[in-house]
């Protein structure tokens, strides 16, 4: 028995029957010999963490707030928080925490520069639309490693693709671990975005509806703790009743959705950041148009995509992969004069 097989035997001892066992994976698109030490989901996690797309998350916006302070979340720290919450829930239920971790680490790799503002602009530009969840799959399946992709397992790719939309009953992940990450993403961003918004002076504790404070807690950590305990306890009850479904209780689901709606109204789509969203959208729009008109300015891989799949697809891939910082610096290089013109 090698070390990987020993790790797989630990899964037999610690995971519930409804978990996804690494030895039972649906496999990879291209067959590979298994690692002697790591299970397939550990390998997927490591490939994602060591990818260029993952490193770029450190300079991608979580919420479009001026990140002059080191204490604001970025897309990278959001990803780490999602992973932490997902692993805690997985251990509480008896699911495969390494599968949860791999999905969590890869779920936002396809987010564009300037978060959902960039996503909305690219969605209008690209025929067929643009969704960051689909782009995340494209990143790990095609764009990484110079066009080779990371060759991840089917379970991880499914979890990445279906991590958005709690109310979409037609888009439920095939594994309970994927469902855990789906909830963990919402638990993480709703709560840490409140924390960042208060720090930025865009929101006050008093503005948060009192009945939601009473239901979930009076701080970021209290609310996360409440939701994590609820989802573990409620899911265990679901499974005991023969309903293999990850879910919060009805009361906590309603509270989380209300808190999310509150954030959309007041922060994500509120007037307080309206001007900044316009600026970000202007930059992304002009970057898209510039490279659409000058595809030869893109790196070779994207020029090849333009030949194979069309210029819109290639330009969308290139701009979506940019960090905020790189997008801004490139915009300045293209559009801002460097010397006085007489």
TrEMBL record:
Organism domain of life: Bacteria
Alphabetized InterPro entries for the sequence: dGTPase, Diverse_Catalytic_Enzymes, HD/PDEase_dom, HD_domain, PHydrolase_assoc_dom
Keyword tRNA processing: no
Keyword Hydrolase: yes
PROSITE patterns for this protein: HD (PS51831)
Organism expressing this protein natively: Inconstantimicrobium porci
Coiled-coil residues: none
GO molecular function: triphosphoric monoester hydrolase activity
Keywords: Hydrolase
Name assigned to this protein: Deoxyguanosinetriphosphate triphosphohydrolase
Domain HD: from-to ranges: 75-190
